[in-house]
TrEMBL record:
Pfam families: 2OG-FeII_Oxy, DIOX_N. Belongs to the iron/ascorbate-dependent oxidoreductase family. GA2OX subfamily. GO terms for molecular function: gibberellin 2-beta-dioxygenase activity; metal ion binding. PANTHER family: 2-OXOGLUTARATE (2OG) AND FE(II)-DEPENDENT OXYGENASE SUPERFAMILY PROTEIN-RELATED. InterPro entries: DIOX_N, IPNS-like_FE2OG_OXY, IPNS-like_sf, Iron_ascorbate_oxido_reductase, Oxoglu/Fe-dep_dioxygenase_dom. This is gibberellin 2beta-dioxygenase. It catalyses: gibberellin A1 + 2-oxoglutarate + O2 = gibberellin A8 + succinate + CO2. It comes from the Eukaryota. It comes from Liquidambar formosana. GO terms for biological process: gibberellin metabolic process. Keywords: Dioxygenase, Iron, Metal-binding, Oxidoreductase.
Amino acid sequence: MESDPPFKETYKTLFHNSLQEAKTGTPYEVLVVEECELPLIDLGRLNLGEFERDECKEEIARASKEWGFFQVVNHGISPEILERMRCEQVEVFKRPFQMKKSEKYMNFSAGSYRWGTPSATCLRQLSWSEAFHIPLTDISGSGGLSCLSSTMVQFATTVADLAQRLAEILAERLGHKSTFFKEHCLPSTCYLRMNRYPPCPIPSEIYGLMPHTDSDFLTILHQDQVGGLQLVKDGRWIAVRPNAEALIINIGDLFQAWSNDVYKSVEHRVATNQQVERFSCAYFFCPSYETEIQSRGEPSIYRKFSFGEFRRQVQADVKKFGYKVGLPRFLA
């Protein structure tokens, strides 16, 4: 398709090397994993009596400790907004590749459109996907995004409120009634990422998104019904069964460090599909680069570090090794 990034042309050396390895009989891992339901939490219970409210908060904390992932319903974002968001996202990705690359034409900030993996040295390091990684200030600022309607503003505003609410609950369950998140995780520091995973000719060899952990406090994901999200639970990969009514929440590296390893930032990936494309939209709850992350617990597992320092180290490791090292770099 004219809209698809030129994966095969750009990474032809990796495809050639893969064919050569296949001829020598080198086996490839087949992405066949068991499907499961994530813990499902009804946030409507937060508006009920004290017992229901406390029980709901405890379920959120428990899932964050045991899974690092959970899904929520009655989250406050209407099905109409979610459907409009998905439809408009599909329309944006249908535009020709050269147009999407032209950030001036698309009215996105420089570097917003991303695809593939420039640092990949083998197919296993290549992400078969494209994305618009958009600062919230691009959405709500005076320039705005002429190519998208006010739906994105509605979506981002509501999801931002949900992220703040969940972060405060998780802090409270650690015994911290903290204003940290309201002070440091602002619209100017958070992001939306619209993702598209095109059909992939060799899904057994290429990920839609490489295994990784998220470098934020929380991620809130709205995905379609195609499926493909997989995560590590009890040492094995499991596939997340899509739920049309739910949003998926996962803990990021910063919350794991902030909670002194109480909450878990879990490795996850996206599998590719040979027949159909997949769409998702993620909200990343991040602080400013100057914000210092310090463990709320003794003895502290991690040394104090700024978010900017963490991001720079991640980028350096990906460039050097082809993958993210993450929190082990910051052990006390």
